[in-house]
Design goal:
mainly alpha; 88 residues; 3 helices; single chain
Length: 88
């Protein structure tokens, strides 16, 4: 039996999150809620890419935590910018 390569699993996850992003962007009626969901999916995709395709999955926990904090910081900044645009 062939074992599935971890990058194949990540690729399937990324495709699923991309499809979920498209669906969420078109189907959610409230703009700020749509932004939260889409940016949440983007943060998950960014973390998966950084951990698996840059080989950080096997790195020490502190590095994985720093990478996750960085991705969440970027997503939070993007959400704040989009929320500010909605308020103006």
């Amino acid at each position: 039996m062939n074992a599935r390569h971890p990058l194949e699993t990540t690729l399937v996850l990324l495709i699923g999150l991309a499809i979920a992003t498209l669906i969420a962007a078109r189907s959610l009626p409230v703009a700020w809620l749509s932004n939260v969901v889409v940016l949440g999916f983007a943060a998950l995709k960014g973390r998966a890419i950084l951990l698996d395709f840059l080989g950080l999955r096997a790195a020490p926990a502190i590095w994985r935590g720093l990478v996750t904090a960085w991705v969440l910081g970027l997503a939070s900044f993007a959400w704040a910018a989009s929320a500010a645009r909605l308020l103006i």
